[in-house]
Design goal:
The protein is α/β, with parallel strands linked by helices and 398 residues long. The protein folds into two domains: 126 residues, Rossmann fold (3-Layer(aba) Sandwich); 226 residues, 2-Layer Sandwich (Dihydrodipicolinate Reductase, domain 2), CATH 3.30.360.10. It is built from 17 helices and 14 strands. The longest helix has 19 residues. The radius of gyration is 21 Å and the shape is globular.
């Protein structure tokens, strides 16, 4: 066990409450000393659960700025609505509290630049809590790429392909922020789950960067039909015009020549997938059929034989399992998205305790988040390419 970290949580909706109740309280070095939400019932319910666990009774707040005045507070976990993430993160950094910020897309480039400037001025630690960077398959494929098993990486794909029709349509009842975004915006609104692992493989901000993107959105029909069938009594929502296209494709080109295809697909009936795909000159990985194809793999000599190998990922575990997951499996995988949540949280706490750089830093955060603001612009311009800023100001080169 290391030094205790006194943590506060802002935002106790579905995500924030779930993390506290089932995942983060497993960490032996963390004490949750404060809770904050604009809805009093959420704070009271989460505090009750912590008390039943035998934890220290947390202080309760409705205004996070008051909470930041607590001298004993070391760090803050932000789980509030997307549009509040950056503002809250800046206030936390100015108050000298280390920040763990949940994921989402940016609303403007100005928002991203201000985050970078605040971090560089305050030097306060900030971790972007992109759990998919810690996925078992994602880390195994990262290891394979780093060891040259896949050859030179040429193209990657990823998606947020998740049927969210119920969550969005009942957003008012659930007090969930997604609904307003789907009414008013048309963009790649949730890019980081798919982009994070790809960015690590392509060394984005560390010898490579994203240069341009072009986005196209389909028409918006899925929510309209769902509401007609499942919520016909809601006359307001039935007559609402949704701006968000059902399927959004975003193509990105990188400085080192690779391409990335991101797909948002959340308002049509479908199975869950992040569509993680990596193609190199010696082989490829595909999430959707859980398969790896290698040039020199005797089990798949040609593309016809390869079809017989679909679902073969487990065959590569022994040789290419990432060391982080090898140790994790021995110690016992925790709850939370297949164990990813606990890993990203543990790295954040470790960074605070050791004073080491955060593995998913502010430059990662703004680069990945900026895709939302840029895709919105590209879609509005009919798919016109737009430039992706260099938020490192040239530091990515070295």
């Amino acid at each position: 066990m290391g030094k205790k970290v006194n943590l506060a949580v802002i935002g106790l909706g579905q995500r924030g409450a779930e993390l506290l109740k089932n995942v983060y309280t497993e960490h032996p070095d963390v004490e949750f000393i404060a809770l904050c939400d604009v809805y009093e019932d959420r704070v009271e319910e989460t505090a009750r659960v912590l008390k039943e666990m035998g934890r220290v009774e947390p202080k309760k707040f409705s205004d996070y700025r008051e909470m930041l005045k607590m001298p004993e507070l070391d760090a803050v976990l932000i789980c509030a609505s997307w549009e509040m993430h950056s503002e809250m993160a800046k206030d936390c950094m100015r108050a000298g509290k280390a920040v763990a910020c949940e994921v989402g897309g940016a609303y403007s480039l100005q928002e991203c630049w201000k985050l970078v400037e605040c971090h560089e001025e305050t030097k306060t630690p900030l971790m972007f809590m992109e759990n998919c960077v810690y996925g078992r398959d994602e880390l195994m494929v990262l290891r394979m790429a780093e060891e040259g098993v896949l050859g030179e990486i040429v193209h990657c794909e990823g998606g947020y392909r998740h049927d969210l029709r119920e969550e969005i349509s009942f957003g008012r009842e659930k007090r969930h922020y997604r609904l307003d975004n789907y009414i008013h915006r048309n963009t790649e609104n949730y890019p980081t789950h798919e982009l994070g692992p790809i960015a690590k493989i392509l060394h984005i901000n560390k010898g490579n960067r994203m240069l341009t993107l072009s986005s196209m959105a389909s028409k918006a029909c899925g929510l309209r039909e769902y509401i007609r069938d499942k919520k016909p009594e809601d006359q307001v929502l039935r007559n609402t015009v949704f701006q968000q296209g059902d399927v959004v494709n975003t193509m990105i080109r990188c400085a080192n020549g690779e391409t990335i295809l991101l797909t948002l697909d959340t308002t049509l009936p479908r199975y869950y997938s992040r569509g993680f795909t990596v193609q190199g000159t010696k082989g490829m990985y595909m999430e959707d059929n859980a398969s790896i194809f290698l040039d020199n793999d005797e089990g798949a000599k040609d593309h016809f034989e390869w079809k017989k190998q679909w679902g073969n990922v487990e065959r590569f575990r022994e040789k290419y399992e990432h060391p982080l997951w090898r140790d994790y499996l021995k110690a016992g995988v925790k709850k939370g998205h297949g164990g990813m949540d606990y890993l990203v949280f543990s790295d954040f706490i470790k960074g605070i305790q050791e004073g080491s750089p955060m593995p998913v830093d502010v430059y990662d955060m703004v680069s990945w988040m900026s895709i939302s603001a840029l895709a919105e612009e590209s879609i509005a311009l009919g798919g016109q390419p737009v430039a992706i800023p260099d938020f490192t100001n040239g530091k990515w080169i070295k």
